[in-house]
Structure formats: structure tokens, C-alpha cells
Amino acid sequence: MDQLTDPVVRRVAEKIGAGERLTPADGLALFRSPDLTGIGRLADAVNRAKHGDVVTFAANQHINPTNICTLRTTCVFCGYARLPKEAGAYRYTLEQVLQEARTGNGGMTREFHIVGGLDMKAGLAYYQEIFRALKAEMPHVHIKALTAVEIAHIARIEKMSWAEVLTALKAAGLDTLPGGGAETFSAAVREEIAGKKLGAADYIGVHRTAHGLGIRSNCTLLYGHVETYEDRIEHMAMLRTLQDETGGFLAFIPLAYHPDDNVLGERLGRRGTATSGVEDLKMLAIGRLFLDNFAHVKSHWIMVTPALSQIGLHYGVNDLEGTVVREKIYHAVGAQTTQAMSLDEILTLIRGAGKIPAERDSFYRIIRRFDEPADRAA
Ligand code: V47
Ligand code: SF4
Fold this sequence. Notes:
This protein is an alpha/beta fold and 378 residues long. It has one domain (53-375): Alpha-Beta Barrel (TIM Barrel). The protein has helices spanning 7-17, 24-32, 36-51, 94-103, 124-137, 148-158, 162-172, 187-193, 200-212, 229-246, 263-267, 277-290, 301-304, 306-312, 343-352; strands at residues 54-57, 60-63, 111-114, 142-145, 217-223, 249-256, 296-299, 319-320, 356-360, 366-369. The strands form two sheets. Strands 5-6-7-8-1-9-10 form a seven-stranded mixed sheet. The radius of gyration is 20 Å and the shape is globular. Ligand V47 binds at residues 77-79, 178-181, 183, 218, 220, 222, 253, 255, 257-258, 262, 300, 303, 321, 329, 333.
């Protein structure tokens, strides 16, 4: 790495070469460094050492069973939630969930990603029924469902502990937890953007409990709103600490804040100004470098565009959000990207980066590699 121009990045490269973990000060210095290319080269080297040229994706399908949410007025970045009597509010019946599950992906779905609002009428029994019915009809499909925030909500309305809720849902068919609801852990930021949402310690607590019960999970970081670089580092440090303790996280997924059609975006006067490409790439690369105990860093192409995600494959990313069939949460806040990607489109995107696409299961085991064709211009 003798062409690294910024001494800060050079120092970090030496540390990584010596097998040393990055400190919060190192992470902060990287965010402040102008040397995006150098940071990317480091992240790429770390990523290649773990995964070679293979980039994975899952054939997954998002289902959002209810948009009714008690936090509708306090999560000011969210454009998806509705109050129970508000126009556009919905809660699927079991039959509607099954209908949607049956329609997607031409039968290739291997994972349902099921999340929604904190709906007082969607308690334990509602989700148990859904998971049981999905598993009865499609036993091969993995169920990744309910964020830590939703688990805590169900526990509260059912007067049960997190462990009891998780155990009951696991028995009904829940396999893993998605990473949503983390937002940014900093108490001051949370107060401003998600005043009434489950706090950082409890988000971590639900994931710790899940890992203890053999339920693995993902984690996220919502960036590009009012948080500072220090907040991003503090957030990732908490994730890294839990990962040291349990090893239960599968992937880290940075989520780029979208300012359209939500109160926060209006308040900040940010309509039409999503995060910049440089910010997105830095976030992905520094996530890869700081979270040295994470195997997988996933880019969410729906938010940062497929083109940026493709470049991210040279900045530490080894996994792409899959062939999402119908995405509502981001498209409620102005995401202009397509709602789904076909298998061909995903293969073309990954090959266009000079990488080898591979379909994976929900535990990141490779199902099939697509080594071919090598010499096509994409
Ligand atoms: O927690 C809501 C985010 C998350 C906005 O685990 C917004 O595999 C940007 O967590 N701008 C839910 N982001 C989505 C999520 C996720 C997505 C894909 C894969 C996985 C996984 C998890 O969406 C929320 C929140 O952070 N979000 N509104 C917005 N205006
Ligand atoms: Fe509800 Fe989640 Fe939206 Fe907050 S981000 S209002 S918890 S759906």
C-alpha cells in the first residue's frame, strides 16, 4: 500500500497489516480523511482476504404486513407508518400475506423478510399464525422477521419477556432477525429523530437475547441525517462489542437516509438531497474496516442505487440486498430505484464489477456460483 497519499490512511494500513484492531480514533480519522480511494483499497484488501472475488445475494422477498404504528408521529424520518384511522393504513389478513408470499419471484424465493409497524393489533398470535402458515405451505423458505423494536413491542403488549416472545416465535417458524430499528444509537440523535423508539441498550439487549437462543441476526446503521462521525463510530463500536461477545451477527448493513416525504427531511430542508456517493462509499468501506469481527457487509441497492452498490463491491462490500420483490419502506420516502431486481439484472451488476456472483442461503452458505461468462462488457 505504498501509494496511500494520506498519512492517516497509511497508519491505519500498517495497523491492519499488523493484525491490530482499529480504535474509535482511527475510525474517526478515516471518516475525516479525503483519501476515499486509499480507504477503499484498504477495505477491498480486507474484503478479498475474507471472500476473494465472490459476491453473494439472496433470492428474498420483502413482506410488510402492517404499516400501522404507534410511533408514527415520533420517528420523524419514516414515511411508511400510518395511524390506525389514517388514509392508507393497512393490516394484512393471513390470506393477504399468503397471497403476497405466493406471487413473488417466480417461485425462486428462499427467504421472506417480514417487518412492519408497531401495531397494537398485531401481537404474538398474529405473527405466530403467519409464520406457521408460511412454513406449512413453503417449508423450505427461511423466515427473517421482526426487528428488535417489534420484538420489544410484542413483549410489551403481551406482558412477556423478550426471551419468551422469541422462543414462541422460533417455535412458530422464525429463523433469524433482520437488522432494522437500530437507526443511530446516540441518545441525542435518537431523541431528535426517533424520540420514543426502543433505546440502544435495549436494541442490543434483544439481539443478545436472540443470539443466546440460537437466533442469529443482522444489524444496521441509519446514516446521513443529523448524526456526526463520532455517532457512527460509537454505534459501530457497540455492534462490535456484542459481536465479540456472541458472534451472532450475520451482516452489517449501513442504510443511507432518504429525505423525501418525511418530516425530518422537510425540517432539514433536504428534499431531493440524499447522501452523496462519496459518503456512501466511505460508510461501506469504514464499516468493513472497523467491524473486523463481521464476516459480511451488505449494500442496500434500493437506497443507494444499483450503480453505487456496484462500485461498493470495490469498497469492502461482499453481499447485495437480494431480489426484493416488493419494497415499501424506502419507496414511501422517495427512493427512485426499481422495486425489484431480476436474477439476470443482479448477475449483470455483479459481473460488471469483475466479481463472481453467487446465490447464498440466509446463513451465507453458497447455493450456486455463476462463474460465467467472463468476457462480456456490462
Ligand atoms: O429501521 C426508514 C430505515 C429500516 C428511512 O436485516 C429509512 O437484512 C432511509 O432495516 N431513509 C428498515 N432509511 C430496513 C432494514 C433492512 C433493509 C434491508 C435488509 C435488512 C436486513 C434490513 O429502514 C429502518 C430504518 O432505519 N428507514 N425510513 C428513510 N427515510
Ligand atoms: Fe414505526 Fe418503524 Fe416507522 Fe418508527 S420507523 S414509525 S417504528 S414503522
